[in-house]
Amino acid sequence: MDLVDSVANDPRHLQGRPVADYHAFLDAVEEALRGSDGASLLRLPSDRPIQVIGDSHGDYASVQRAVRYARAHDPSQRFVGLGDYIDRASRSEPEPTSLPGGSIWNLAFLLAWAARAPDEVILLRGNHEAPRRFPVPSMTFLKELRREVPPREAFSIYSRCLDLCDRLPAAAITENGVFLAHGGIPPPHRWDLGRPSPVDATVLEGLLWSDPIEDYQDRGVGFSYSAEELAGFLRTNGCAVMVKGHAPVHLGRSMHGDRLLTIHTSDLFQEVGHEGILMVEIPTIRAVRSTRDLIVRRLVDGSWRPYAIQHDAPRSRTADPLPDSAERRDRSSAPRVGAP
Questions:
Q1: Model pLDDT, residue 6
Q2: Environment class of residue 184 by beta-carbon count within 10 Å: exposed (0-12), middle (13-18) or buried (19+)?
Q3: Sheet containing 260-262: which strands, arranged edge to edge?
Q4: Which residues pair with 336 in a beta bridge?
Q5: What is the dihedral of CA 274, 287, 50, 299, to 10 degrees?
Q6: Does domain 3-331 sit in CATH 3.90.1640.10?
Q7: Spans of the chain, pLDDT less than 70
Q8: How far from the centroid of its chain's Cα atoms is residue 159's Cα?
Q9: Nearest to residue 66, comparing CAs of 51, 46, 76, 50?
Q10: Could you tell me which of 100, 123, 107, 120 has the C-alpha nearest to residue 53?
């Protein structure tokens, strides 16, 4: 069994191994992901359910259960991570007493699966995967590496991991109308993501750092967006619903007229908002028109159980019509997962 397969089975396979093995693992992942250029947007088919996790921040135990849930079906369901796989680590042993290697194992596990099944395991960038573009507070990933490998070797591994993270897409749209991104939306003059354009700082800042106005804090980066602005952005891109992570204040609560749902998949945030370590399933229906069409599950005693999210308002029947799937495909030049 090669290193990628071993880490996909158990990320702690790297624990205590020589630094050369870390580099060999990263070499294999890099080769498997060659050709991925960090495109701003991916288009995902809706021919099978898609399981989506939010911020995990080193909680690799929950992430392993999420991936295994998706892979246990026949055929395997697609799996999407919304970013923030590293930093802040599991709260089971928080600083300053000790700092577990959760970020290392979580990122390694997900990279292994992205290399093993690149059309089925899709990792989006979070703000913690883009510290070179926008500085991130509460970083622990490099600290964790310095405790796991000889400190003089840690930065080279850290830098290579960031190189791989720079290749991850910043957002995705499902064929049946769900927009997936870590934080939010770009400013209004950059709403049309279907136009061919580079991944510039303005778009990336919006996707990774923005918050709905109800959660917004002026952190010197990111933008706030209202319910009306979100509706306009979704309409521009042929979508009806957004699923995001980032700010956990409204975890597990549907907002903005059932257009917006925030989830996290980490023990760090399980008691925030409506509470829970959550995963969302996007079903194979032709058009997702509200968050009520999604299936939400909560991790309880190691099992994913159905979970009823809070809704701000009754489902609207007067929302703007959603373009059909053919029109949505025609409007975007984004690369399509699984396409030849």
A1: 95
A2: buried
A3: 42-44, 171-174, 178-181, 241-244, 260-262, 253-255, 310-311
A4: 43
A5: 20
A6: no
A7: 1, 36-39, 89-101, 195-199, 313-340
A8: 21
A9: 51
A10: 123
What pLDDT does 38 receive?
Answer: 62
Q: Rounded to a whole number, what is the largest CA-CA distance in the chain?
A: 60
| C-alpha–C-alpha distance, residues 237 and 252, integer Å | 24
Euclidean distance between CA atoms 292 and 51, whole angstroms? 16
What pLDDT sits at residue 137? 80
Compute the distance between CA of residue 277 and CA of residue 77 in angstroms, rounded to an integer: 20
Rounded Cα distance, 154 and 195, in Å:
39
Would you list the domain boundaries of the chain? 3-331
Name the H helices within the chain. 3-9, 19-32, 60-71, 102-116, 141-148, 151-165, 201-209, 227-236, 325-331
DSSP SS3 for 110: helix
CA distance 183 to 210: 5
DSSP character string of 123-174 = E---GGG-TTTS--SS--HHHHHHHHS-HHHHHHHHHHHHHHHTTS-SEEEE
Residue 301 CA to its chain's centroid (Å): 23
Structure tokens at 183: 């934080």
Query: What pLDDT is attached to residue 327?
Result: 43
What phi and psi, each to the nearest 5 degrees, are found at residue 184? -170, -140
Tokens of 181: 């991104």
Beta strand pairing call for 171-174 and 42-44: parallel
